Amino acid sequence: MSEPALLDPSPVADPPSTGRRGLTARGTLINSLFAAFLGFLNFARALIVAALLTASEFGVWTIIFVTLVLLIAVKSSLVSDKYIQQSEPDQVKAFQKAFTLDLASSVVLALVMLVLAPLIGLMYGRGELVAPTLVIALMIPGLSLQMPIWIFYRRMQFVRQRVLQAVDPLVAIAVTVSLIVAGMGYWGLVIGTVAGAWAGGIIAVINCPIPLRLRFERETLRHYVSFSGPLLIAMLSAMVMAQASVISAEAALGLAGAGAIGLAATFREYTSRLEYLLNQTMYPAVCRVVDRAELLFEVSVKSNRLSMMWGVPFGIGVALFIPDLVEFLLGPSWQDAVIVLQAFGLAAALDQIGLNWSVFYRAVGRTRPIAIVAVWAMIAFLLTGVPLLLTVGLGGYAIGIGAATVVSLLLRAHYLRLLFPRMHLGRHALRALGPVAPAVGVVFAARALESGERTAGVAIAEMAVFVLVTALITLIAERRLLSEVWGYVRGRSPGIALSGPPDATVERV
Questions:
Q1: Which residues fall within 8 angstroms of residue 355, CB to CB, at 6 or more apart?
Q2: pLDDT at 203
Q3: How many CA atoms lie less than 13 Å away from 290 in the CB half-sphere?
Q4: Which among 232, 271, 277, 332 could bridge 348 via Cys, Cβ 3.0 to 4.6 Å?
Q5: CA–CA distance from 163 to each of 78, 123, 198, 227 (Å)?
Q6: Is the dihedral of CA 315, 320, 324, 327 positive or negative?
């Protein structure tokens, strides 16, 4: 029997014909495939750009990009999560009100970027930062035009969502690499980023199933502010950490230091990509079963296990093999970045534990804990990372990142236990380390037996062994969970509760 429309009772809705469980499992697969493809392209772009640009040139881009990406994160926290969580009877009006608020926030943030441009130049004492920062501000309104993609996300129409979302990064990658190869330096990154945002926005508007109209209501604004205020605080905390990192690195080590931090952040972002996709896939479904405590607990446990299968091995793999990557691909100008890249890899692996906790707090409308965790992580970093970076160098910065990660992990464990009293993150951590520990042991054993000069071929062979051993043990250890997920992808129901039963009637908390 087909399930009723999950999200939109409006006539523009395209109700899914399968249950939430199948939608969520298939959505995870679809999102993971898109993420693997686009994530690989972004990762390759970062390596190509790092190889073609000097560390100092990459540092210029890092300073600009850190400001931009955090402003974008602020913008996203203001509207999109609440739009997915709301359940207004008229979804046409709900979207138009959300679009109005999102567009207004983009205009404000673009103006903020224009004001920040000369200030950033003065702060770093580098006038060359002003012009590209002014140009990159043009990206932000283009992102608001991509708001129609959230309609398909809310309906859990993941194929349409991901196809439309792919336009931005694909155009950005193509333009960026082409312009850098043509000799435009970091301007290739600036122009490519703006081109991708506007190309994605134009395609999204063309495919929007709801008329784009401006519709403002004070009550709607109040609801969005109440929900999004703590999320904004969390984003601002991240902004302070990122800006403090780059400013301190540039002051202590020059643009090369800022470039090292920027490249390390790229590795960590890639490590968290699957976790982000799982969270994004689950969020629309979780918002509609928030009164099912046992169901939410099972979703939390199993989704975190799925994400750690990827994130923990990748983070540890970065720590193991980043010296080879620098030596054989990036070049000697990045040698000083090895220690911070290794620290980011280990921190990213540790950060996978319980990383999906915010999905459930957002779904139940309790966003204040998210702000609390972010603020305390920021404080931990400012008290350790910044002074150690200025006195010790990148090694001290690595210690600060570790301190912030540990504080965040401890607090998230506390809040997860409040929401799910039976949650034991320690067990999940040990389970995730199970497959990767033997792989690390094999690599260390191989290195102990090596003789002569280390070559790129030897490094590649060790990487392949690490991946194969980890994958094989993971398939054996997690075969039941993987089988359940695959059963849903194939349309069967082996037992994993990724959402409520098809006939469940739920209320929003």
A1: 272, 275, 279, 304, 307, 311, 412
A2: 95
A3: 18
A4: 271
A5: 24, 40, 16, 29
A6: positive
By the 8 A CB rule, do 275 and 356 touch? yes
Nearest to 134 by CA among 174, 191, 49: 191
d(CA 412, CA 355): 8
Q: How far, in Å, are 69, 167, 169, 420 from residue 188 at the CA level?
A: 17, 18, 14, 47
d(CA 345, CA 141): 33
List of the chain residues with pLDDT < 70: 1-33, 35-36, 38-39, 42-43, 55, 77, 255-258, 263-282, 285, 288-290, 485-509
Q: Long-range contacts made by residues 171-180, C-beta under 8 angstroms, separation at least 24?
A: 171/195, 171/196, 171/199, 171/200, 172/196, 172/197, 173/41, 173/42, 173/45, 176/45, 176/49, 177/45, 177/48, 177/49, 180/48, 180/49, 180/52, 180/53
Residue with tokens 């301007």: 187
Q: Identify each DSSP E strand in 235-352 by its residue range.
A: none
State CA 218 to chain mean position distance: 31
∠ Cα 314 319 323 (to 5°): 125
Q: What sign has the CA pseudo-torsion 301, 306, 312, 313? A: positive
Share of the chain above pLDDT 70, in %: 80
Contact 190/176 with Cβ under 8 angstroms? no
CB hemisphere CA count around 190 (13 angstroms): 23
Q: Which amino acid is at 271?
A: T
pTM passes above 0.70: no
Count Cβ atoms below 10 Å from residue 332 Cβ, excluding itself.
8
Largest distance between two CA atoms of the chain: 71
Identify which of 428, 424, 405, 417 has the alpha carbon closest to the alpha carbon of residue 360.
417
The whole-angstrom separation of Cα 462 and Cα 446 is 8
Give pLDDT, residue 503.
32
